[in-house]
Amino acid sequence: MAVAVVPVPAADKALLWAALQDYCAEMMQWGTHKPEPDGSFAYPWFENYWTDADRWPFWAMVDGKRAGFALVRREPPVEMAEFYTFPEFRRGGIGLDFARQILKRFPEAWVLSEYRSSTGAIAFWHKVIADYPYTERVYVGGQGVERLEQRFVVS
Asked: CATH second-level architecture of 3-153?
């Protein structure tokens, strides 16, 4: 299945917000996302993806259906702030293709990071960046959780 990378239009904000809530709920297993009293998850930078010149929201589209999303920001370097493949689209190469296409859109220095205990995410990102020489380090993130970071350049 071919994956198309499509910028998320402002008209899709509610759809992306709902998908981001599912992503945050899934990330709770790493002890990093806590729901608000109403059950939702805060994401203070959400609106910035339509107002800041250095933030971009993307859909992964497969056969006209949304298969996932990516939130990319340039600090610099460019960072994959959030990346999510919807469960029903996993294990078929869609996420891998989507991630590689996103990287190629920004041919410059990149940084990725995963929760150290998320071995599946680490394996996924190692596969995504296999063609790029990268450095890697362990650090403790803002929520006191160990993370693994990769730095590399897309040319």
From this structure: 3-Layer(aba) Sandwich (3.40)
